[in-house]
Design goal:
The complex is a heterodimer of chains A (228) and B (107).
Chain A (H helix, E strand, L loop, with lengths): L9 H25 L4 H16 L3 E2 L5 E2 L4 H8 L1 H18 L8 H26 L4 H30 L6 H33 L16 H5 L3
Antiparallel strand pairs in A: 1-2
Chain B lengths: L2 H21 L11 H9 L26 H28 L10
Helix pairs in contact in B: 1-3
Classes of the chains: A mainly alpha (228), B mainly alpha (107).
């Protein structure tokens, strides 16, 4: 869902750039508080994994594809602050090195894919983990649902930006409906991949899953030292 | 194995997976338009897209300039991307997390 240059006008792109800088600055402070010598390399690995996975578009419906955003996955694995930074790093590398996503749209893409997607995913994850039984499977399910929801929410953030600063005279309602619809389908893929990867890490190294501390009693001690 | 050694193993295996995905699996990615492109085509605003200022760079669109073989081209681009992302991400996160020992867990 990387926005190219030209879709959104300069004022809205610049405003998004300001929000992106502010959001990343807050995430830097949060991550500095939370990251330790165990979580930091995991956050690095998560960023690299998201970069790799974003190269693999999967087909969703006739003639459309999608790829992992990774915000939900990153948030569950390394926490929301590091997730915002990991996705932002991926977006910067993609825009500067691979011409994937416009340079003037970098702020928009960071807002949608790093800030909005992570926020949506983290809210869903925390609420689901609270509601579900305190078991490994609940973490997998909550992560999957967080991934599923994060994609259409991110798509609606784009539709909002298009409404505010779209350069083409297109019916905004149609863009909202089309963006939401396609991205629910892509969200299913996002949810499945997120759930599978979280399940795989939980199976081998549950202590490396940041989100586990909100569900499993044996990791609850981490909440005391790393309360955000 | 100590926790430190197990963490190192996890990192190494994880990075190998990343290289495999970006360097090999990426060739099999769907080349259909993504959700946003699809909507832009359907709703008729795809023409407002402009080429990125770096669209002419050596690695633009995940292809290496001068490498004709598509599998090789996207694979090399992916591996370079993994290395660049790794340097930036591990560097930043190491700096953010340095001199802080992790809380012990009962894993």
């Amino acid at each position: 869902m990387h926005i190219p240059d030209g879709f959104i006008d300069a004022p809205v792109s610049i405003a998004a750039g300001v929000i992106a800088v502010g959001g990343v600055a807050i995430a830097l402070r949060g991550a500095k508080r939370q990251l330790d010598d165990r979580l930091a390399p995991m956050a690095g690995l998560t960023a690299v994994f998201v970069f790799a996975m974003q190269m693999v578009n999967f087909p969703v419906a006739a003639g459309t594809s999608g790829h992992l955003i990774g915000a939900a996955l990153a948030a569950v694995l390394v926490g929301p602050w590091a997730a915002v930074l990991a996705i932002s790093i991926v977006l910067v590398v993609q825009a500067l090195v691979f011409a994937d996503g416009g340079l003037s749209a970098l702020g928009l893409n960071i807002v949608n894919l790093a800030l909005v997607a992570t926020l949506a995913a983290w809210i869903v994850f925390r609420v689901m983990v609270k509601l579900l039984p305190k078991k490994e499977f609940s973490i997998v399910l909550a992560a999957g649902l967080a991934g599923l929801v994060s994609v259409p929410v991110s798509a609606l953030a784009f539709a909002t930006e298009f409404w505010l600063g779209g350069t083409a005279p297109i019916s905004v309602g149609a863009v909202f409906a089309a963006m939401g619809g396609v991205h629910v389908l892509i969200g299913i893929g996002e949810g499945l991949i997120t759930a599978l990867v979280v399940a795989a890490v939980l199976a081998v190294r549950p202590d490396l899953v940041y989100g586990a501390r909100y569900s499993l009693a044996r990791f609850a001690n981490l909440l005391v030292s790393n309360r955000s | 194995m100590t926790t430190k050694a197990r963490n190192m193993w996890f990192l190494v295996v994880g990075l190998i997976v990343c290289f495999g995905v970006a360097g090999f699996v990426s060739f099999y990615a769907s080349s259909d338009p993504d959700g946003l492109e699809f909507v832009a085509e359907q709703e008729g605003f795809i023409e407002t897209a402009q080429d990125s200022a770096v669209a002419g760079s050596a690695l633009a669109d995940y292809a290496v300039v001068g490498v004709a073989d598509e599998r090789l081209s996207v694979g090399i681009a992916g591996i370079i991307g993994v290395i660049i992302t790794a340097v930036v991400a591990f560097g930043l996160f190491w700096w953010l997390g340095k001199r802080k020992a992790s809380t012990t867990t009962s894993a």
